[in-house]
Each structure stands twice: as structure tokens, then as C-alpha cells.
Write a structure and sequence with these properties.
Strands 1, 2, 3, 4, 5, 6, 7, 8, 9, 10, 11, 12, 13 and 14 form a 14-stranded mixed β-sheet that branches. The longest helix has 10 residues. 39% of the residues are buried. Strand 4 and strand 5 form a beta hairpin. The protein is mainly beta.
């Protein structure tokens, strides 16, 4: 089935970012991907995304749908035909939308699991909690807006952090087959993020001592994007050797 290019509005995109020991990150990645390092650290996190007006690019806005979604991400690089490329590897995507579960991997790239979300949001404070229906993954994050990025060991300031994530617009997702990765790229002419201050963050993924031994995953910073129009374009599939990732428990059954 031919996969669609989608149009949407990023109503809220909360990026909760961790500093990761490179060897711990590398164990979760299928070849040919490798961790993208920043000041000697791998970078990973949770993207808590509410999309509105989601529709094929040719469809009118009135037909667009809305959904809450979550993606666990690891910043990666790989050798492309024109040199080193960068993006993110997504071992797991989850959504509150039954349609996204059905359509992911069919109508658009990215297989999704089903999750239940609890969201409390004001202009200055965001709390997003979710639990997957299969019982595997939970997270509960509360972030307040901030006038600048403080306390990050990955990025000197908001400008540097914004540029890093803008450059990592290609996302490759794990698939149940494990034989290939499905890709999608975010395009927007209105990129803008705000700094966040994390009040609390609990994540069964990053708090798992088997996956991340003590000291190998440290909360670093949070970024917030709101009300940004964006298109999503399918990328060619990437062949992958997912044996190492499967051993680390990142592939969904």
C-alpha cells in the first residue's frame, strides 16, 4: 500500500530528554544505526505529542483528526549515500487513537501500540501521563515553561537545543518483523520551541535498571512546541539487523 504524506498541526509536543551512556544506548539500536553523541553522551527521551487536523496533504482541514501520542526516541546517525545522516530511532510508538493503531505501518509509516493518556495543561504547566494497554510501558511527566534552558549538560542554551532537534527530523521506527525500519520526516516552516523546567518525570522505560544500569540514564532537559503546522513525509524503508535491539527488549511483540 502506498503510504500517505500527512498534514497536521502540532498542538503540543513535549520533549523530555535524557543523557545516556553511549554503550547503554548502543545496545538498544539495530544496525546500521549508532548513537549520536553530544559532549560524550547519547541523547534519548520521550516525545509526548498531541496532533490536530491530521489528514492527507490534499484533504481539507475540516476532515482532520486529533490524537494523543507518545514515542520513545534515541538520537542516532548512520552512513547514507552522501555521508553521515542523523535522526532518531523510535523503539516504541503508542497512541490513544484506534485509527492510528490500524493505520500505522499501513497508511503511514510507524506501527503503534495502544495507550491511555491523562493530560492536564495550562499555558505555563503541562502534565502528561500514559500507560500502554499491553502493560509494558508507563510514564508521568510534569513540566513548566521557562524563560531559558537551565541545568542541561547536553546543550549550552535553548538555541543549541532547538537546532539539534530540528536537524533530527528523520525518525525511523521499529517494526514487528525486525527486518526493516519505517521512516517518516517532519517538515515545518514555523519551527519554534520553548524551554521547559521538569518538575517530575517517571518513566518505566528509562527507570528500568536492566535496560539502563544505575547512572547510565539521567534526566537532562525538556522542550515544548505548540501550535506549529507540520507535514509528515514517508522515507524509504531501511534494512536493519534488529537482533541486538530485540535482546534488549525494545521490540514490541
Amino acid at each position: 500500500m502506498r503510504q500517505l504524506r500527512l498534514s497536521s498541526v502540532v498542538e503540543r509536543r513535549l520533549l523530555v530528554n535524557y543523557r545516556i551512556a553511549p554503550d547503554a544506548a548502543a545496545r538498544l539500536l539495530p544496525r546500521p544505526l549508532r548513537p549520536q553523541l553530544v559532549h560524550g553522551h547519547a541523547v534519548a527521551g520521550i516525545c509526548l505529542l498531541r496532533l490536530g487536523s491530521v489528514r492527507p496533504v490534499w484533504a481539507p482541514t475540516a476532515l482532520g483528526l486529533r490524537s494523543e501520542n507518545a514515542a520513545h526516541r534515541i538520537a542516532v546517525e548512520w552512513d547514507g549515500p552522501d555521508g553521515v545522516e542523523s535522526g532518531v530511532y523510535i523503539p516504541r510508538r503508542d497512541t490513544a487513537s484506534r485509527l492510528n493503531v490500524w493505520a500505522g505501518g499501513r497508511v503511514f509509516p510507524g506501527e503503534h501500540g495502544r495507550a491511555d493518556f491523562e493530560v492536564h495543561e495550562t499555558p505555563s504547566r503541562i502534565r502528561v501521563a500514559f500507560a500502554t494497554r499491553d502493560g509494558d510501558t508507563q510514564a508521568d511527566v510534569t513540566v513548566e515553561t521557562s524563560d531559558e534552558l537551565r541545568g542541561s549538560e547536553l546543550f549550552a542554551d535553548l538555541t543549541e537545543a532547538s537546532r539539534f532537534f530540528q536537524d533530527g527530523a528523520k525518525g525511523y521506527s521499529a517494526t514487528r518483523s525486525g527486518r526493516h525500519l519505517e521512516g517518516m520526516e517532519l517538515h515545518t516552516d514555523a519551527w519554534h520551541v520553548e524551554a521547559g523546567r521538569t518538575d517530575s518525570a517517571a518513566s518505566s522505560f528509562f527507570d528500568d535498571a536492566d535496560r539502563f544500569p544505575p547512572g547510565s540514564a539521567t534526566l537532562d532537559c525538556a522542550l515544548i512546541m505548540r501550535n506549529v503546522p507540520a507535514n509528515w513525509r514517508p522515507l524509504p524503508t531501511m534494512g536493519a539487523d534488529s537482533r541486538s535491539a530485540a535482546r534488549s527488549g525494545t521490540q514490541r511483540e
